[in-house]
Amino acid sequence: KQEVTQIPAALSVPEGENLVLNCSFTDSAIYNLQWFRQDPGKGLTSLLLIQSSQREQTSGRLNASLDKSSGRSTLYIAASQPGDSATYLCAVLNAGGTSYGKLTFGQGTILTVHP
Amino acid sequence: DGGITQSPKYLFRKEGQNVTLSCEQNLNHDAMYWYRQDPGQGLRLIYYSQIVNDFQKGDIAEGYSVSREKKESFPLTVTSAQKNPTAFYLCASTRSGGNTIYFGEGSWLTVV
């Protein structure tokens, strides 16, 4: 059974720092991996999606990498801002399924960026 | 604007009661999903439906029921058989063959 783990559980950094969030998964037979952002008491917003054949994806100050063989992904946030404060969730879609929303989630990393 | 609407935002349930959470989407998506999130935890899949009049159990379906009579609607009933229903419930949808998943704003259920 696929298991997804995120480290650290919480992170507090001063504004302007570059930071890395980590995600690991136990079964490398995945179709894709996504990173989501969740604000307190809200739904999830997809940030980046990496297909299993890709190594990384970039969007603005965000860069996500994928090493499928080792079961790891990282989310790199450059020049962090207070507005980046949120919970970041990693999720994988296992290969072989037919439902694109049937995801396995990590427990999330709570990020606080203080001015 | 297109999106997913969940209601109510906050719901209180007494012991032994069934409650129904509403999820409506106007994205014309074929597939819909219900996830549960406990504090400090990730999301776990309860039920999903890939087409009208069909649905499948997810990882934690016990104590829940769903229906999919219309493409745009996927209500979730939390029955009295669910022993620990207090949680944040999220509805989501995807189009057929599409990678992008869209989430609603969630519903908080508390047992009193």
Describe the structure in your own words.
The complex is a heterodimer of chains A (115) and B (112). By secondary structure, chain A is an all-beta fold. Helix content of chain A is 0%, strand content 58%. Chain A contains no helices and eleven strands. Chain A has strands at residues 4-7, 10-14, 19-25, 30-38, 44-51, 56-59, 62-67, 72-77, 86-94, 103-105, 109-114. In chain A, strands 2, 4, 5, 9, 10 and 11 form a six-stranded mixed sheet that branches. A five-stranded antiparallel sheet of chain A has the order 1-3-8-7-6, with no helix packed on it. With 112 residues, chain B is mainly beta. Chain B has no helices and eleven strands. In chain B, strands 2, 4, 5, 6, 9, 10 and 11 form a seven-stranded mixed sheet that branches. In chain B, strands 1-3-8-7 form a four-stranded antiparallel sheet, with no helix packed on it. Chain B is globular, with a radius of gyration of 13 Å.
- End-to-end distance of chain B: 35 Å
The chain pair with the largest interface is:
A-B, 24 and 27 residues
Overall 3D form of chain A: globular
* Share in β-strands of chain B: over 45%
Descriptive tags:
heterodimer, A: about 120 residues, mainly beta, 6-stranded mixed β-sheet, 5-stranded antiparallel β-sheet, about 0% helix, about 60% strand, globular, B: about 110 residues, 7-stranded mixed β-sheet, 4-stranded antiparallel β-sheet, 11 strands, about 50% strand
List the helices and strands and how they pair.
The complex is a heterodimer of chains A (115) and B (112).
Chain A: E1 4-7, E2 10-14, E3 19-25, E4 30-38, E5 44-51, E6 56-59, E7 62-67, E8 72-77, E9 86-94, E10 103-105, E11 109-114
Parallel strand pairs in A: 2-11
Antiparallel strand pairs in A: 1-3, 3-8, 4-5, 4-9, 6-7, 7-8, 9-10, 9-11
Chain B: E1 4-7, E2 10-13, E3 19-25, E4 31-37, E5 43-51, E6 54-57, E7 64-66, E8 76-78, E9 87-94, E10 102-103, E11 107-111
Parallel strand pairs in B: 2-11
Antiparallel strand pairs in B: 1-3, 3-8, 4-5, 4-9, 5-6, 7-8, 9-10, 9-11
